[in-house]
Design brief:
Blueprint lengths: L4 E6 L2 H9 L7 E6 L4 H9 L11 E2 L4 E2 L5 E2 L16 H33 L2 H8 L5 H12 L6 H5 L8
Helix pairs in contact: 3-5
Length: 168
């Protein structure tokens, strides 16, 4: 099987409507294949720390999740990661993907620094020990942060019982 390099981006509803009007693919996720002879694009992705999969293919899909308004957002929960226009060429798609990857990495770095700052200032000895030993600490961090930031907070399941129980 031949090695395929692809870039996949999420299109906003406006971009999907625009593509539909133009007779272009209008799915939410649009994928562009990077020709094997486009070493400039392949090298740009490698320079951005995109690593090949087990078959040697580069597959770029920025990590997004649904935001409060239903649009696809980056890890900060606020920055919209879907495009309001469909890139016309594979060059444009790679450029958009690289911009999203760079911005997403900056958000992750900022989140990591904020987490380290908070742990140093407010974390328990247990949490600090987990971090120092490079052990999994995210759940402990979330519990401690929630306890300090929102004292008295109780999960909805404890307030209302099991959400899956039938009523009546």
């Amino acid at each position: 099987m031949a090695v395929r390099h692809t870039v996949t981006l999420y299109m906003s509803a406006a971009a999907r409507a625009e593509a539909l009007r133009a007779g272009l693919p209008s799915e939410g996720w649009q994928t562009w294949e990077i020709p094997a002879n486009r070493k400039d694009l392949i090298n740009a992705l490698l320079d951005a720390d995109v690593m090949p999969d087990e078959k040697g293919s580069l597959r770029v899909t920025p990590s997004l999740r649904p935001g409060a308004d239903g649009r696809q957002v980056l890890a900060d929960g606020e920055t919209v990661g879907e495009l309001d226009h469909r890139p016309a060429t594979v060059d444009d798609a790679v450029r958009e993907a690289l911009a999203l990857l760079k911005f997403s990495a900056a958000i992750e770095c900022q989140r990591e620094l904020e987490m380290q700052r908070w742990i140093a200032a407010h974390g328990s000895e247990r949490l600090k020990a987990l971090v120092a030993e490079k052990l999994s600490f995210n759940l402990v961090y979330a519990d401690e942060r929630l306890a300090l930031d929102r004292p008295g907070w109780v999960p909805l399941t404890q307030l209302c019982g099991k959400l899956t129980e039938l009523v009546g």
